[in-house]
Amino acid sequence: MNGENKNEWVKDYEEFLEADTVSVPQALSKTILTKIGKLMDPSPLSVFGKVALIHAVVGFFSLSICHQFGVNPFGTQASLADWFMAVGGHSVCMIGCGILFMGGSLLASGYFLTLEETRALRRTGFPQFFGLGILSLGLLATLGAELALTIGGLWLLGAMMGGFVATEMVWKFKYIRVQKLTRAA
Question: CA nearest 83: which of 72, 71, 97, 69?
Answer without folding.
Answer: 97
